[in-house]
Structure formats: structure tokens, C-alpha cells
Amino acid sequence: MLNVANFNTHAGVDGWGRPFDLVAACRDLNADVLVLEELWTSDETPGGQAEQIADALGYDSVSCVLAEGRRAHPHPGATPRWMPRFGFGSGHNALFFNAQRPLPVATTASARYAEAEPGSWGIAVLVRRGIETVDSRTLHLPTLARDRVRRAAIVVDLRVDGTLLSVVGTHMSHIIYGSHRHYAALRTLLRTEAGPEAVLLGDMNLWGPPVLAYMPGWRRAVRGRTWPAWSPHSQIDHILVRGAIGVMSGQVCPDAGSDHLPVRAVLTLGQR
């Protein structure tokens, strides 16, 4: 058996910039393989969140930076709500990205942006120490003109109970930005860059049926609403499998502090 989980961490802060205990949230998932999105690495302090989680919980980590930007400090006017009433476009954002195109002048001139810490934002695949890692690589996806960040997938090949298994972690763009191009590229890449037995985990920014339409041959291991965490109405966080992999269980996990709910699955190898 192999326990796998996925969690979009929102850089370990809520929409007001208030931190939550990200290490504890990852510990509670108790995963052998953990894929994380929106991890933060500050330019002001050594070591990013991927390394901090790996060191604290006994994982080896493979990570990829997708954007540069700033993470805001807690907003003095924060309310008990997870984020400002008018959401991510309210001007009180916790995260700012300028990796692909400039931010509006009004944003960069604001005190909240100026006081925010500079750093980088990305994804990681964490593998519990003791599980054999055979190889790893990063697959870069095409740039989309409307997307503020780059996109990629991390592939880690593991040997589990004598079976070679490819674990793929990614964070896809939104469909309104043209993510169909990313799905086409990822579908093609994974034909050769991942083995026949593979698990794909990530914030796909898309519902299950169209994800399967874009990724034929894959099967959903988890079904349930994952976003937004405080009142979920959509599943956009997924665990997909292909090949001789059985799904013993799959679940959406409790609120862990982000705007996304984590997802977790228990898999068996060598059977469907």
C-alpha cells in the first residue's frame, strides 16, 4: 500500500496574510508521498517551506519555482473571514506575482505590496525517507500570455514493493487562461516521461470530467468538493492513477488552513 496526498498550501497563509501551521497540516495527512502547491520561499530567510516540511517530517523533496513575487504580512484590518469580502481582487491580496507580466501600477504603489516580503512560489513532491527514489525530472509547460506564473510538472520515479511507480506533481493554469494547451503538452509528455504505473496529483484548476477528457487513460482516485475550503462547491484538486494501481480509499480531508482542502488516497500496486 502507498498513501499519497495533495495540498495547495496558499504559501502557508490565509487571504489576509495570517500564517497557519503548515508543518502540522502536512503531518496530519500522514502521506508516504506528498505533493504540495503554492509553497513559499522567502528571499529574507534561508530555506523554503518545502525544505522546512521535509526536515521536520522526514521527507526527501524535489521542488520547482514557478513564480517570483511577494507575500504580504498579516493585514491589520483582518476579520474572522478567510479573506477580504470581495476576494482575491480586493487589493488586500496576500500573494502578488510578477513573473510573467507586470502588476498594475496601483498595486505596486500600495503600502501592502511595498511592505510584503519578496520571494518565490512553486511546487514540490515530497517522498518519505526509506522509499527508494530512482530518478526525478521537471517538465516545463508552455507559457500562456494571460497567466502570471510559469507552469511545470515534477516527475519522481519510485520503487515500491518491487514496482516502478512514477509520481507526477503539478499545478495547472486556469481554463480561462488557455490551460487546454498545458493539458495537451502534459498528456504528450507523460506518455514517455512517466512509466505505465503512474500517479498524477495537483491543483488542476478544473473539474474532474474535463480533466479526464484532457487526460484519457487516467482514473480519479478521489471524488469530492475541495474549493473553496470554507464552503466547497467544486473539486479542482485531484489524484489520478493509471496502469496496474488499485484505489483502496480516497477522501477529501478537513480544512487545514488554505483555501483548498487536501485530498488523500490509499493505493495498491500491481492491481486495478
Description:
It is a single chain. With 272 residues, this protein is an alpha+beta fold. It has one domain (2-269): Deoxyribonuclease I, Chain A, CATH 3.60.10. The chain is built from six helices and 13 strands. It has helices at residues 22-29, 49-57, 105-108, 111-115, 180-193, 208-214, and strands at 2-8, 33-42, 59-71, 95-97, 117-128, 132-140, 152-160, 163-171, 198-203, 219-220, 237-242, 245-252, 263-269. The strands form two sheets. Strands 4-3-5-2-1-13-12 form a seven-stranded mixed β-sheet.
Report the sheet-strand fraction: 35-45%
The appropriate CATH architecture is 4-Layer Sandwich
* SSE topology string: EHEHEEHHEEEEHEHEEEE
Distance between the termini: 13 Å
Alpha plus pi helix count: 6
Radius of gyration, taken over Cα atoms and rounded to an integer in Å: 18 Å
Q: How many domains make up the coordinates?
A: 1
- The oligomerization state is single chain
Could you list the spans in which at least 5 consecutive residues all have pLDDT below 50? none
The CATH C-level name is Alpha Beta
Largest sheet descriptor: 7 strands, mixed
Structural class: alpha+beta
Cross-sheet strand order for the largest sheet = 4-3-5-2-1-13-12
CATH superfamily: Endonuclease/exonuclease/phosphatase
Instruction: Give the averaged pLDDT, no decimals.
Output: 94
Shape: globular
